[in-house]
Design a protein that fits this description.
single chain, binds guanosine-5'-diphosphate, 10 helices
């Protein structure tokens, strides 16, 4: 017999904020099997950065549960190039959605952050308790600061208003629906696009930085499953890390991507580009104790993502 869940989604009106993004669309796929009523709002109808629009939409639609997956996101370059957007957009989106949820009595809300909330020199693997123990990594500090504010707002609303609002901090994510634009993307979609181009046109595969940073990657379908699991089974002030426990160097990642894409061209590292955090591995002991484990290995996830890229991106660019 399975243990009863803390919070059941069955029959509930569930709002996925950011449903067109990589995380939001994975949540939509995962929640389709939950017998709940999914509600979404197109960006053209409600800009989540506008408080008045968000409050009016929430009052008219009255969700019972909210997954807050809307955010301005991007890789190491764009984070640093557009600091104002990364700080302002994310602060506005999270304060508007969380406060509007409180106003209409949302029963449970899941706020999604990122592993970049932890200090640059955090103890590795990084437990939840490393939050706010030191200075942030400069390349993503704007985004990190906004996400830290979101965690704290959920905590503050729990204390002051008794809201059952929780936070999950995913490791570096990838998968279908990712952004493959080379300036704005994270490393996995960038390497897929570059390896694919080298296969088509020859030449080297450019890789930013030295290749030595270590990263932990999770397929977005695993993340969606973990987030739904936490929504049902976790209630508490502290945010919960969501990761795989496996790390890989950027060099090894680039070699794996090239193999999967089927290209034998040399990698060209560019040390003039930033490495960012030297190492970023989450301690996921807490999530495992709660009873959740990832299922999709990196190799399998990369193959699926390359197949998605061929079908949805490369085909249209050709
Ligand atoms: P981060 O975890 O916030 O640093 O996110 P990214 O996914 O943007 O970058 C991860 C690592 O991959 C960093 O060390 C980057 O320098 C490295 N990297 C190598 N090539 C690329 C690339 O083409 N794009 C991006 N975004 N990162 C790259």
């Amino acid at each position: 017999m399975t243990a009863p869940v803390l919070y059941s989604l069955a029959g509930k009106r569930v709002f996925v904020a950011g449903h067109r993004g990589m995380v939001g669309s994975a949540l939509m796929r995962r929640l389709a099997g939950e017998r709940c009523e999914l509600i979404t709002v197109p960006r053209g109808d409600v800009d989540l950065r506008r408080q008045d629009a968000v409050e009016r939409w929430m009052a008219a639609n009255r969700p019972q549960a909210v997954f807050l997956a809307a955010a301005t996101v991007g890789g190491i370059y764009i984070n640093d190039a557009r600091p104002g957007d990364f700080l302002y957009d994310n602060l506005a989106i999270e304060t508007n959605v969380i406060e509007a949820a409180r106003q209409v009595g949302v029963e449970k809300l899941m706020f999604l952050g990122s592993s970049c909330i932890y200090p640059r020199a955090a103890r590795q693997p990084m437990p939840e308790s490393e939050l706010l123990t030191g200075p942030l990594e400069p390349t993503n500090q704007w985004y990190a600061l906004a996400k830290i504010a979101g965690i704290m707002l959920c905590r503050a609303y729990r204390r002051q208003h008794g809201c059952d609002y929780i936070s999950a901090m995913p490791t570096n994510l990838y998968g279908p629906g990712d952004n493959f634009d080379l300036e704005a993307s994270h490393v996995i979609p960038a390497l897929i696009a570059k390896a694919h181009r080298a296969k088509d046109r020859g030449g080297e595969i450019p890789v930013w930085g030295t290749g030595s940073p270590l990263r932990e990657f999770m397929h977005v379908d695993d993340l969606a499953d973990a987030v739904v699991f936490l929504m049902k089974n976790y209630s508490g002030e502290e945010h919960v890390n969501v990761g795989t426990g496996q790390e890989v160097s950027i060099r090894a990642l680039a070699e794996t991507v090239a193999r999967i894409v089927g290209v034998e061209r040399p990698l060209r590292f560019d040390p003039a580009k930033p490495d960012g955090m030297p190492r970023k591995l989450l301690d996921t002991g807490r999530l495992r104790e709660l009873g959740w484990q990832p299922r999709i290995g990196l190799e399998e996830g990369l193959r699926a993502t390359y197949a998605w890229y061929l079908e949805h991106v490369a085909r249209h660019a050709a």
